C-alpha cells in the first residue's frame, strides 16, 4: 500500500492488529478515521485488515470517503464491513446528490453475522432510470433489487435489529411494503422513517394504525411523510392499544386542527409517552392550547416540541398557568418559530422564575421584544432549575445582551445560552468576556450571526479562555472572526476545554492522558497541538517511546 497517508497507514495497522481501543470506524468527530479518504492504493490493504479484525463493533460509513473507488470496489469494501464478526451498529450514508445504489448496501447486509443491533440508512436509491415501486408492477425495472433488500431484512438481520432508521426515502420507495417486514422484527424498539419530500402521504392509514398499535416500539419517528390528512383516527388508537411508546415524533407532516385535538385527548389519557415532537406542522393556536391544557392531567411527558406551528396567546397563557402552578413534570419545551409575540413571551417569563420543573426552554424567532426579554433575564436571578435557554433570531439588541452578561455573574445554573442573530455588538460582547472570567457554569454560548465584533472583542475573549475559563466548550461567534482576527485561537481553546484542559494542566506527569490528548488534536486542530507541546514539552519524549 501507499505510505503517502501515514494516518491511514496507522489506522490500517490498528485494524489488522485488533487494537482493543478501536471499536468504532467512521466519520464521527472522535473517530480515528473521521478525516481520512480511502484511495485506490490503500484499498487492498484496508480490505485485508478488515477481514482479520475482531474488535470493531460500530461503523459509520459515509461514502464521501470512498468516492475514488469504483462501484465494484465499494461493494467489496461494504462486504468486508458486513463480515466483521462483532458488528453491532452500521450507519450507511452518502452525501452525493445522486444517492447510492441499494445493491451496494445489499452486498454488505447479506454478510452480517446476526449480531447487528442498529441499522441506519440514508439516501439510497435504485439505479439510474429505474424505480422501486409503480402501480404497474410489470414495468418495475428494478423490483428485484428492492425485493432482495426486503429478503435480507427478513432472513438475515430480523432477529437481532433493535433500531432501524431510513432517511431521505426516495419518492418511489414502497414504504408500506418495507413496514410490513419491519413490524414483525421481534426485538425492534426504535423506528425512524423520513421521506425526502412530503408531497403526498407515504404510508397508508392501515400501516399507521399498525405502527401506533405496536406492542414492541418504544420510540417512533415519522418525519415528512405527509400524514396530516390520515393521522387523526390512528392517533386515537394509542389510547386503547398502545402502552409502550415512550417517544413519538411527527415532524413535518402537515398536522391540522383535528390531529392537534386528537393528540390533546391522547395526552390526557395515555400515560406512557415521555417525549413528543410535533414541530413544523400546521397546528393552530386553539388546538395547541388544548395540547398544553392536557398536561395538567399528565405527569409522564417530560419533553414537548411545538416549534414551527401557528401558536400564539392562547398557548402562552396555558403555558404560563402550567409553569406558575408546577402542574406537570415537563422538563423541555420548544416553541421556536411561533408568533407568540411580546405579550405571550411576557406571560411565560413572568411565571418562569418560581418554576421547579423546566430544564430547557427554547423560544427562538417568537417575535419577542427587548422588554419581554428583560422579564426572562429577571427570572434568572431567582430560577435555579433552568439549564438551557434559546432566544435566537429575536430583535433583542445590546441592552438585552448586557443584561444577560450581568445576570450570568450571579446565576450558577444555566449551562447553555443561545443568542444567535439577536443584533448584539461590541457593547454586549465585551461584558460577556468579563462574565466568562467568573462564570464556570456556561458550557455553550452562541453569539454567532450577530453584528461584526471588533478585534478587541476576539482578543479579549481569547485571553479570558487562556487565563480564566476552563468550562466553556462551545463558543460560537460571528463569521467575521476569520477576517477580523485570522490568528484567533478561541476555537482551539474550546476544543481543549472539551478534552479536559484543566485536568491536563493539573496532571502534567500523566503520560497516557497527554498522549490521548495529543492524538485527538493531531486529527482536529494543529493550534491545539502546538499549545499542548508548548505547555508540556515532556510529551515530545513520550511520543518517541
Protein described:
41% of the residues lie in helices and 12% in strands. The strands form two sheets. Strands 1-2-3-5-7-8-9-10-11-12-13-14-15-16-17-18 form a 16-stranded parallel sheet. Strand 11 (275-277), helix 10 and strand 12 (303-305) form a beta-alpha-beta unit. Helix 4 packs parallel to helix 5 and helix 12 runs parallel beside helix 13. Among the domains are: 1-188, Alpha-Beta Horseshoe (Leucine-rich repeat, LRR (right-handed beta-alpha superhelix)); 510-545, no CATH class. With 545 residues, it is α/β, with parallel strands linked by helices. It has helices spanning 6-16, 43-52, 71-82, 102-109, 143-157, 175-182, 205-212, 232-241, 257-269, 285-294, 313-325, 341-350, 370-379, 397-407, 426-435, 455-467, 481-484, 490-498, 501-506, 511-524, 526-535, 538-544, and strands at residues 24-26, 58-62, 89-93, 100-101, 118-122, 124-125, 163-169, 190-195, 219-223, 247-249, 275-277, 303-305, 332-334, 360-362, 388-390, 416-418, 444-446, 474-476. It is built from 22 helices and 18 strands. The model is unreliable at 126-141 (pLDDT under 50). The longest helix is centred in the N-terminal third of the chain and has 15 residues, at 143-157.
Mean pLDDT: 87
Instruction: Indicate the overall shape.
Output: flat
Question: How are the strands of the biggest sheet laid out side by side?
Answer: 1-2-3-5-7-8-9-10-11-12-13-14-15-16-17-18
Structural class assignment: alpha/beta
Low-confidence stretches: 126-141
Strand content: 5-15%
- Radius of gyration over C-alpha positions, nearest whole angstrom: 26 Å
Quantity of strands, as a count: 18
**Ends distance:** 25 Å
Q: What is the architecture of the domain at 1-188 at the second tier of CATH?
A: Alpha-Beta Horseshoe
Query: What is the level 1 CATH name of the domain at 1-188?
Result: Alpha Beta
Helicity, as a percent range: 40-55%
Number of H/I helices: 22
In CATH, the topology of the domain at 1-188 is named Leucine-rich repeat, LRR (right-handed beta-alpha superhelix)
Largest sheet properties: 16 strands, parallel
Amino acid at each position: 500500500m501507499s505510505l503517502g497517508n501515514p494516518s491511514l497507514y496507522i489506522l490500517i495497522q490498528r485494524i489488522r492488529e485488533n487494537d482493543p481501543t478501536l471499536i468504532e470506524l467512521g466519520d464521527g468527530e472522535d473517530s480515528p478515521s473521521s478525516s481520512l479518504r480511502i484511495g485506490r492504493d490503500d484499498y487492498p490493504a484496508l480490505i485485508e485488515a478488515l477481514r482479520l479484525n475482531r474488535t470493531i463493533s460500530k461503523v459509520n460509513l459515509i461514502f464521501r470517503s470512498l468516492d475514488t473507488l469504483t462501484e465494484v470496489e465499494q461493494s467489496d469494501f461494504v462486504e468486508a464491513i458486513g463480515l466483521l464478526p462483532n458488528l453491532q451498529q452500521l450507519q450507511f450514508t452518502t452525501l452525493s446528490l445522486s444517492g447510492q445504489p441499494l445493491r451496494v448496501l445489499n452486498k454488505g447486509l447479506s454478510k452480517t453475522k446476526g449480531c447487528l443491533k442498529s441499522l441506519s440508512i440514508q439516501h439510497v436509491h435504485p439505479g439510474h432510470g429505474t424505480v422501486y415501486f409503480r402501480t404497474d408492477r410489470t414495468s418495475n425495472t428494478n423490483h428485484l433489487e428492492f425485493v432482495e433488500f426486503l429478503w435480507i431484512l427478513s432472513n438475515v438481520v430480523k432477529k437481532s435489529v433493535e433500531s432501524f432508521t431510513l432517511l431521505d426515502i426516495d419518492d418511489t420507495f414502497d414504504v408500506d411494503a418495507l413496514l410490513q417486514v419491519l413490524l414483525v422484527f421481534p426485538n425492534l424498539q426504535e423506528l425512524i422513517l423520513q421521506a425526502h419530500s412530503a408531497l403526498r402521504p407515504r404510508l397508508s392509514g392501515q400501516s399507521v394504525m399498525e405502527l401506533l398499535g405496536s406492542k414492541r416500539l418504544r420510540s417512533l419517528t415519522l418525519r415528512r411523510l405527509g400524514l396530516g390528512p390520515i393521522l387523526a383516527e390512528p392517533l386515537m388508537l394509542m389510547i386503547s392499544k398502545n402502552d409502550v411508546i415512550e417517544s413519538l415524533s411527527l415532524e413535518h407532516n402537515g398536522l391540522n386542527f383535528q390531529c392537534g385535538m386528537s393528540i390533546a385527548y391522547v395526552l390526557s389519557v395515555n400515560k406512557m409517552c415521555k417525549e413528543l415532537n410535533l414541530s413544523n406542522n400546521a397546528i393552530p393556536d386553539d388546538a395547541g392550547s388544548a395540547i398544553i391544557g392536557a398536561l395538567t392531567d399528565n405527569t409522564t411527558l417530560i419533553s414537548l416540541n411545538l416549534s414551527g406551528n401557528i401558536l400564539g396567546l392562547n398557548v402562552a397563557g396555558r403555558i404560563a398557568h402550567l409553569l406558575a402552578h408546577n402542574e406537570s413534570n415537563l422538563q423541555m419545551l420548544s416553541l421556536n418559530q411561533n408568533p407568540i409575540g411580546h405579550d405571550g413571551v411576557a406571560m411565560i417569563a413572568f411565571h418562569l422564575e418560581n418554576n421547579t420543573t423546566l430544564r430547557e426552554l427554547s423560544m427562538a424567532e417568537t417575535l419577542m421584544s427587548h422588554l419581554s426579554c428583560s422579564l426572562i433575564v429577571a427570572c434568572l436571578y431567582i430560577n435555579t432549575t433552568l439549564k438551557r435557554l434559546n432566544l435566537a433570531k429575536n430583535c433583542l439588541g445590546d441592552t438585552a445582551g448586557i443584561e444577560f452578561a450581568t445576570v450570568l455573574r450571579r446565576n450558577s445554573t444555566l449551562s447553555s445560552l443561545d443568542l444567535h442573530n439577536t443584533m448584539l455588538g461590541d457593547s454586549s460582547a465585551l461584558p460577556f468576556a468579563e462574565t466568562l472570567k467568573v462564570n464556570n457554569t456556561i458550557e455553550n454560548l452562541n453569539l454567532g450571526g450577530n453584528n461584526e465584533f471588533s478585534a478587541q472583542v476576539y482578543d479579549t475573549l481569547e485571553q479570558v479562555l487562556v487565563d480564566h475559563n476552563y468550562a466553556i466548550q462551545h463558543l460560537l461567534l460571528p463569521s467575521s472572526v476569520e477576517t477580523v482576527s485570522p490568528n484567533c485561537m478561541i476555537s482551539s481553546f474550546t476544543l481543549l476545554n472539551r478534552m479536559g484542559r484543566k485536568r491536563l494542566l493539573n496532571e502534567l506527569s500523566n503520560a497516557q492522558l497527554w498522549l490521548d490528548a495529543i492524538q485527538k488534536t493531531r486529527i482536529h486542530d494543529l493550534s491545539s497541538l502546538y499549545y499542548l507541546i508548548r505547555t508540556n514539552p515532556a510529551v515530545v519524549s513520550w511520543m518517541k517511546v
